[in-house]
Specification:
Two copies of one chain form a homodimer. With 340 residues, chain A is an alpha+beta fold. The first copy, chain A, folds into two domains: 143 residues, 2-Layer Sandwich (60s Ribosomal Protein L30, Chain: A); 166 residues, Phosphoribosyl-aminoimidazole Synthetase, Chain A, domain 2 (Alpha-Beta Complex). A seven-stranded mixed sheet of chain A has the order 9-11-8-12-10-13-14. In chain A, strands 2-7-5-6 form a four-stranded mixed sheet. In chain A, a hairpin with a 5-residue loop joins strand 13 and strand 14. Chain A starts with 18 loop residues before the first helix and ends in a 13-residue tail after the last strand.
Chain lengths: 340, 340
Amino acid sequence: MTGPDLSGSVDMTHGGGGRAMMELIRDIFLRHLSNPILDRGDDAGLVEAPAGRLVMSTDSHVISPLFFPGGDIGSLCVHGTINDLAMMGAQPHYLTAGFILEEGFPLADLDRIVASMARAASAAGVQVISGDTKVVERGKGDGVFITTAGLGVVKDGLNLSAANARPGQAILVSGTMGDHGVAVLSKRENLEFETEIRSDSAALHGLVADMVAATPRIAVMRDPTRGGLAATLNEIASAAAVGMALDEAQIPVSPDVAAACELLGLDPLNTANEGKLIALCPAEDAGRLLDTMRAHPLGRAAAIIGEVTGEPSCLVQMKTAFGGTRIVDWIAGEQLPRIC
Amino acid sequence: MTGPDLSGSVDMTHGGGGRAMMELIRDIFLRHLSNPILDRGDDAGLVEAPAGRLVMSTDSHVISPLFFPGGDIGSLCVHGTINDLAMMGAQPHYLTAGFILEEGFPLADLDRIVASMARAASAAGVQVISGDTKVVERGKGDGVFITTAGLGVVKDGLNLSAANARPGQAILVSGTMGDHGVAVLSKRENLEFETEIRSDSAALHGLVADMVAATPRIAVMRDPTRGGLAATLNEIASAAAVGMALDEAQIPVSPDVAAACELLGLDPLNTANEGKLIALCPAEDAGRLLDTMRAHPLGRAAAIIGEVTGEPSCLVQMKTAFGGTRIVDWIAGEQLPRIC
């Protein structure tokens, strides 16, 4: 059997609730994402409630460009929502996806994106169980925006929250900082480096499962996406009214990313990641947690980068490589628009 | 305490993951939607799993204009997702919301929309437990798009699905057809009618709860949104490989909407609804179901409009008011773009 004809582009009829929309759903969405729940074609996906507490999350994805080294908006929207669930310690189970398509967007590109979503979902063991498609006129969107929502289950006894940060806890990261932001910006600006810098986009729930099994006392997990490590640590510091003391020499940054950041005027600590996490745990558990992280393919470059302090003004401070101390602040403006 | 300063507009920093985004979340989203789950500020909302089977659904909303008689994108996105859950017979519990904002969108309008979401959610007894905000450059979006996802619970024993349609079942609608589409189009085109036509946008789960309690043998429920009654009945007919025979004289259409449709060249049966449902049930239950629907404020104009047939080509046919028969088809193109 040959596939459907995907030589055309999205037009307004694809959002009209009529026959053209049904064909789009059949030829692209169901062809790639098919599963018994989605295939029923009902208004919502019906599933057996898994045992445990539920977590639910959503992310809208407006990344530009849509395709970049190491991923595309399709894989990114799956990984992004899985990671939000994973940061609560959850096992992700189900996703929904809402597509906002711009008139004129090539069907072949949409097909490629949905195929990538399907691969990412399958690799992560999650199913897309319900979806929606809207079309906006040319110039009222930008190719495709995808909003995913996810449902996962947390084991009893596990309570991860930014509010759990306490002085004395160790701060760990699972790997190098800034890869995603630099990869996307390089592609957007058509920059070429000697080695291609690839996004770290990845689903982190497997790493998280190993971590919570080894160290049930993990207090906080977060993925440092928009705004990078700096924004995420400041968020945690604000939420729990604590300070942080980092050691710059311990923060992993790949030499290629460091060089690209230098050239682009970026700080890797403000630059987005899509396959890394930050974890806070009691100091006495830090060594074991680090070993567990390093034993997982997505945590090989994990490091202990500092500790939580009782510093009353909730600042994130860093001992620099030159022996000084600087404040690691949120960026005031937007360093990199549309990075996810 | 005076409220936050909302005299400005959305700029790219509001999507950057930094301080401006945190302030937007605090001043608009949390101010209106606050609840203990959302207020934790984690990457996902954590809830106790309610007993029963779960349903999950999503809808992206790109309606234009954003404000229309009878509602706005804020109330619509809450009602739309609740209704998708309700059509599975579910009690809705939780929503997530992903916002895609266009640079330059007035903060005061965003505030009005989020306030409207909050009122709709509160009235319906659901909580928004997680959200996300992205910003795109001017000309890459259109004010605001909102994608909601919802989680609900279905009682054991209840199995509603389009695939359950069987010859002999009665077809009921809960009220007049076409109100939403005509209301939005009138506003978009600046048309004035003697009486203002208002959208029927409403949350239908209360009506549904009464219906399934009175008539547990309901086989199918659907809300006839985009594409109207015609598209929804054709979808059901295709899914279950059945035909349908309608009686035009029984299909409720308000005189104002009928007159406006005449003027605008629309067919009320192809025109969107946002607070109406279609139900299929065994013929012997139809009278009781009709009584139950009419006893609910959102079902006062309910009617039995036809029956499912074994007609092998899966056509939806209608006895017209003039005594002839016509086929009620999907519309081929898009009658009304961006109606939801």
